[in-house]
């Protein structure tokens, strides 16, 4: 069908300063942990012992060394247009080396924005410039060193979100708890950024540190703030010309590849925000001619086929482009209910993305011969599967409720179930959702232990789990109400159908959500939203072979209103529920958010505070 027209948000002019941030953004957001910890000494949180505290400012929020003049002043009170020259960014190297090592080993695999070899060279040079400033007394950091220092801080911040980690014990490295260290690193990074000259020109390092700020906010469930940070990064990328195939300046292939990776990682998150959260696209695709990353750096292996650390990310980007072309335009609001159009789009997804996967990432029978030597491939594979099955689920989402029962329409229900393509699409969306839950479960298992806080646990996994449970809920309610029979009765008369296995997966997924709610603020919110719905479906589906229950059997219709009945009556031959259930169909009251689940837009979960009694992440 060709490239579909899109509405793009134009990049407006505004000052380079970030003074438009919300007042409360200066406070470091929670990383999603539910633990409450007492504030630690800020100097110790940064790795300083009491005898070294003289290098810090006299304020309790010590951020940086001032110049060695008698007229000392704090950067917190400096005039916005005349920031003080900075000698160095006060950090203890043993702590920073530890967090950078964790990043390169565990975190960088997610986006592969950083080239480890070139980064390590620049990192060592940055420390030398820090030491030189100390020796020369009056020397100040250059703007490039400030930018790189901010990148170091943002990387360290994201690394703290992975702590505790079984491979990275912090004893003797951090002189405070990981959470306290995270808070003070956030404050330090925030103050360094605010003190930068508003007239400075962005560099690739600027884009990188903004991107990892986006990641930190996203992992902290601060989706709105993450979008604001994305806007800043996109404006800098535009000024730097990352969207251009030929930026007009001499660059090495390595520099061009890193620019391409930076741009397309921003693009992928922008399209995620657009497709799933209902935001306007910040990057207008029609104005960008930059090539996709060439995927030619640091190959894992080159025979019998080439696989690099960025290969999986390249397919994430291609999938984001597919969503932008087919599932983001305004026409999708109606096209998603057309079975012929959806079938055509699904065929394109299969041909353009899934059929092109290399053997190590194929959906069926992947090549696992390199998993032992390159453990990152295992997690990359499952994360890519989550993206692909999630996209497939979203593509078919309009058919999870083919009767349109949950759309709020109170008209008479159709007399027959869906047939043909509509019925096939309904089966596909349920199967894809179940595969998503299977992948989520495996990714939680790959996180090594319940105490590990990998970034996927903070955002990607819980939000996908909540959405998948909501989708299965919608399907089960649709079947129950459309058939005018309780789930238990349907499963008893059709024991060979996939309904029973789907309900079992739903129950297991909800148990996983309940467990993760103790560790993730998103899972906690999802539990609050879905718990009542789960209880109602549980009540409607009582069956001794699925869940141990005692007492009377409750027969419920789509409105969740139950009437106790003798346990043996529902199994009697010829027992008719139609006259009993039909009068209640008109009084069905579904959750206020339920119609929104069917359109694939996750903004109902993050933005609609009144629906969730003001509960917010």
From TrEMBL:
The keyword Transcription regulation applies. InterPro entries: Sec_Metabolite_Reg, XnlR_reg_dom. One of its GO terms (biological process) is DNA-templated transcription. GO terms for molecular function: DNA binding; zinc ion binding. It is found in: Nucleus. Residues 11-25 have a biased composition (Basic and acidic residues). Residues 226-299 form the Xylanolytic transcriptional activator regulatory domain. One of its GO terms (cellular component) is nucleus. It comes from the Eukaryota. Residues 1-50 are annotated as: Disordered. It holds the Pfam family Fungal_trans. Keywords: Nucleus, Transcription, Transcription regulation. This is Xylanolytic transcriptional activator regulatory domain-containing protein. It comes from Penicillium alfredii.
